[in-house]
Amino acid sequence: MIPNTPTICAGEALNWINIQKAPMLTYTLVSEDELWGNQSISYGKKFSYTFDTPGNYSYYCSGYGNTMRGTVTVT
Q: Does residue 3 surpass a pLDDT of 80?
């Protein structure tokens, strides 16, 4: 995920887009803070979430060893 530590302002949305060209590769985006339910994102699709409250919010992609992780900083 690029970048894996984005900084945005409260009230802004962040988009996660699956640009992986491997056939049939779907990612499941998980909020460690339970801000959203698990979101499956297939190739070419996106998931958007609007962060209304300042803070740091962690997320990861389930599967693939849960190695794709990040933290959104909302100011």
A: no
Residue among 21, 32, 23, 22 nearest 62 (CA): 32
**pLDDT for 15-62, tens place per residue?**
999 887 776 788 899 999 999 999 999 888 999 999 999 999 999 988
Q: Which of 22, 63, 57 is nearest to 49 (CA)?
A: 57
Report the number of distinct structural domains present in the chain. Answer: 1
27 DSSP 8-state letter? E
Backbone angles phi, psi at 65, to 5 degrees: 75, 10
The residue range of the domain holding 46 is 7-74
Contact 48, 13 (CB under 8 A): yes
Tell me, what CATH number does 14's domain have?
Answer: 2.60.40.420
Any domain includes 2: no
**Does some domain include residue 1?**
no
